[in-house]
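Entry type: protein chain
Record version: 2
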Amino acid sequence: MRIYEKYFARQVYIAFVFILFAFSGLFFFFDLINELNTVGQGNYKFGYAVLRVGLQTPSRFYEIIPVAALISAIYVFAQMAANSEYTIFRVSGLSTGQALRSLLKIGIPLVAVTYFIGEVVGPYTDQLSERVRLEALGSAVSTNFESGVWVKDTLSQREDGEQVTRFVNVGKLMPDSTISNVRIYEFDSKFRLSNVRIAETGRYQSPGHWLLTGVTDTQLTDIAPANGKPADALNPVYRANQIVVPEYSLRSELTPQILSVLLVSPDRMSMFNLFRYIQHLTENHQDTQRYEIALWKKLLYPFAVLVMLVLSLPFAYLHTRAGVVGVKVFGGIMLGMSFQLFNTLFSHIGTLNTWPAPITAATPGLIYLVLGLVGLKWVDRH
C-alpha cells in the first residue's frame, strides 16, 4: 500500500474498532435490560442472562460493522477536512478516483471479517445462546401451534419401492436436538393414510435415521368388498392393526440441522444451513421466499461495508464551514441507521409481494451506492 493509503487505513481502523465496541456495548446494555424480564424464572439467574447476551455479541458485531465503518470513515475524513489534511492530499495529486479505490481497498478486510462472523461465529454462538436460555428455563422450542412443530417429510424411496409422504408433528424440540411427543402421519403414493406412529421421544442417528422410543404403530390396510360387490358406504374400508414397540428406527430426510432452524431466526443462520433448509422446503413443495431472501441478504450484506465507505467519502470534500465534525458524524449515524431500516423494511415488502429474492436483497445496497456516487460527483464539481 502507498504511504497515504496506510495513513488512511490506520486512522479508519482505529476509529472503527472504537465505534464498533462502543455500539456493541450500548446494544449489550439494552439486550440485558430486555432479558431481565425472564430472570428469576426456573433456574434462569442473572449470570445466565449476562452469558446469553454476551453470546449474542458476535451477531451484533455482524449487524453493526457496516454502520461502524461508515461512521469511522466520516469521522476520519471530517477531521482531515477540518485540519486541511485532505486538501493537502488533493493538492499533492490525489484524485477522487484514486481516493475511492484506496478506500475500497481498506474496506476489503472488513468485508472478510463480516463474512467470517456471519458464517462461522455468529450462527454458532446464537444457537448456544438459545440453548443456555432454554436449559436454564427447563423449556423446549415450539411454534405458535399448541400441538408443536409441524414438518412435511417426503421419503423418495421406501424399502418396498413406494414413495411416502409424511407429516411429522414434534411436540417439543429440546436444546440437545432430541424430540418428544412425536406423531407421524404417513401417506402412500396416492395420498391415502397408511400409517400413524406415536412416539414418546426420538434421537437422531446418523446417517438418516431417528431412533424413536415408546412407539405405538397403527397400520391401516384396505378392506376389499366381499364377493366383488360394490363397497357399502356404511361399512369400514380400512382395517387398523396396532402394535406397541419399545424402539423403532425410522428412516427420514429430516435432520437435527433442519429442525434447529427453529432455534435461530433466518437472518442469523449461516448460508450453508439456509441453503440446506431451502432444498428441504423445495423438495417438499413448500414456500421458500422468506429463506431465499435471507440467503441472498447473507450473501450480499458484507458488501454493504463498501457501500458505506463510498457514502463517507463526500464528507472529506466538505470544509469546516459546511459543518463541524460532530454534525457530520451525527449525519453519518442517521445515514447508517436509515440504511439498516430501509434494508429490513424492503425485505418484508419483498416477502409480501413475492419479489425475486436477489432483487429484494440487492436493491437497498444499490440505491445507497448510487446516492454515494452522486454525492461524490456533486462535491467534486463544487
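Comment: The longest helix spans residues 96-137.
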